[in-house]
């Protein structure tokens, strides 16, 4: 799958683009010549976030442009402030200038690339874009690698299930492996039973496109990191069929898989000195005569039995078998990412990435990184008193505890039962979707927590 625009342009000629804070806007406007001042006054440019000013020359071509940077208070309420004005700039090549700190300049440059993303696979034409020269002093290679990883995540989520079933997700992972010299094996269909992945098989067996486990490895030295991503390519809810309104966005239920593949791309492109493993259980939760049923009891790879009280709580089932395999390798860190529960959205909304971890050193590293790279996360508790809620009595575990309380927490506790030999485990219950347009985040598929994780890895794994 080709990536959309996620790189800086290379040219010697560009339109100066000035970043103008609100509190210094009057002084900056006073430095312009009289016609430019008059034009700025006509347009109402005042340096507010989201404002853009384009000053033409005598021939009508753009000679200078500016974007508002707002006040410190306004900047604290959002992120990617230059990108907020990008839709108002005409197509062209721009050279970003302004009195920005190194970290702010890097953030705004990344925001520009993220804002330039378009999902145009099904469009006959794509509009011309405003391009950016890599600002002096930023690590353009790193920023481009991050933007490309995010573009991959968005592309995978945005693709409809008709073109992004388990075989297509496998093909995307295979292409990524080939691009970076990684190794990959895939276990498909009834071979899942032979190789002891019974819950992945049970969830996916009713679909025409066979379930599978994707296993990609890269790197031969350094600490071991295993990423596990939920790859439910479409979720009908199974025999506990979702209502139509709830099924409308279920092409994004493989958002965890898309996120870990995007993060893997960043890690490999930046050649981080670690040993990476990516595990993706790729299935469709469909309705057929052989679909798994409410009240079935499944035996997992770990040997734990699971009572099925809702076939729409299938993501934790496929993740459980993959996590058991990850745990057998005893890596230094396991991270799972999944669009797992609606309860997480009720708790923190679509903009925050909730995560669970017991190791406080990981909390510190992740939250410092998240703040630095404008990728917000929020810690949720592995609350031990709720363990009894996932123990039905007739089996070891319940996949859907009754009562409706603490749905994200009980799902996380369920997953933790399958990581027993690896001391450090972190789980993200992400949304993977931007419900409305925002700076650097067009409506549609979205990576969450991946940039924060990437920034935290050096401290977490002592790279």
From TrEMBL:
Protein family according to the UniProt entry: Belongs to the peptidase M17 family.
Cellular component per GO, a single term: cytoplasm
Keywords: Aminopeptidase, Hydrolase, Manganese, Protease
Ranges in a coiled coil: none
Protein name: Cytochrome C oxidase subunit II
Transmembrane spans: none
GO molecular function: manganese ion binding; metalloaminopeptidase activity
GO biological process: proteolysis
Superkingdom per UniProt: Bacteria
The keyword Manganese appears for this protein: yes
Record-linked PROSITE patterns: CYTOSOL_AP
InterPro entries listed in its UniProt record: Leucine_aapep/pepB, Macro_dom-like, Peptidase_M17_C, Peptidase_M17_N_1
Gene3D superfamilies, per database record: Leucine Aminopeptidase, subunit E, domain 1, Zn peptidases
One Pfam family cited in the UniProt record for this chain: Peptidase_M17
Lineage: Bacteria, Pseudomonadati, Pseudomonadota, Alphaproteobacteria, Rhodobacterales
Domain Cytosol aminopeptidase as annotated: residue spans: 310-317
């Amino acid at each position: 799958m080709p990536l959309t625009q996620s790189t800086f342009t290379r040219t010697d000629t560009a339109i100066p683009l000035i970043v103008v804070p609100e509190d210094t806007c009057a002084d900056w406007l006073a430095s312009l010549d009289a016609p430019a001042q008059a034009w700025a006054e006509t347009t109402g440019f005042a340096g507010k976030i989201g404002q853009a000013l384009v000053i033409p020359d005598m021939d009508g071509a753009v000679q200078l442009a500016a974007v508002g940077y707002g006040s410190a208070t306004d900047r604290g309420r959002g992120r990617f402030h230059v990108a907020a004005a990008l839709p108002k700039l005409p197509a062209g090549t721009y050279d970003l200038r302004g009195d920005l700190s190194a970290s702010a300049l890097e953030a705004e440059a990344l925001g520009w690339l993220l804002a330039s993303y378009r999902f145009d696979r099904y469009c006959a034409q794509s509009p011309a874009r405003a391009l950016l020269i890599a600002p002096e002093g930023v690590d353009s290679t790193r920023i481009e690698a991050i933007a490309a990883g995010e573009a991959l995540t968005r592309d995978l989520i945005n693709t409809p299930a008709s073109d992004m079933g388990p075989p297509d997700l496998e093909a995307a992972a295979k292409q990524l492996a080939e691009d970076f010299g990684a190794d990959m094996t895939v276990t498909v269909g009834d071979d899942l039973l032979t190789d002891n992945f019974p819950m992945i098989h049970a969830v996916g067996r009713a679909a025409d496109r066979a379930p599978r486990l994707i296993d990609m490895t890269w790197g031969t030295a350094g600490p071991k990191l295993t990423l596990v991503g939920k790859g439910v390519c479409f979720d009908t809810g199974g025999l506990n069929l979702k209502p139509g309104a709830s099924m409308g966005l279920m092409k994004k239920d493989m958002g965890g898989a898309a996120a870990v593949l995007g993060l893997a791309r960043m890690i490999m492109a930046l050649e981080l000195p670690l040993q990476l493993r990516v595990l993706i259980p790729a299935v469709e939760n469909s309705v057929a005569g052989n679909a798994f049923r409410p009240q079935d009891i499944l035996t997992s790879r770990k040997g734990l039995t699971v009572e099925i009280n809702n076939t729409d709580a299938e993501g934790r089932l496929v993740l459980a078998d993959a996590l058991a395999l990850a745990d057998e390798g005893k890596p230094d860190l396991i991270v799972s990412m999944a669009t797992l529960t609606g309860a997480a959205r009720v708790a923190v909304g679509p903009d925050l990435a909730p995560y669970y971890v017991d190791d406080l050193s990981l909390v510190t590293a992740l939250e410092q990184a998240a703040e630095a790279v404008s990728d917000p996360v929020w810690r949720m508790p592995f609350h031990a008193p709720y363990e009894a809620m996932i123990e039905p009595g007739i089996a070891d575990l319940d996949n859907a505890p009754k009562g409706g309380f603490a749905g994200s927490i009980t799902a996380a506790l369920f997953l933790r039962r399958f990581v027993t030999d690896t001391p450090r485990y972190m789980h993200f219950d992400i949304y993977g979707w931007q419900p409305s347009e925002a700076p650097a985040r067009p409506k549609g598929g979205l990576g969450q927590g991946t940039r924060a994780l990437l920034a935290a890895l050096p401290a977490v794994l002592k790279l």
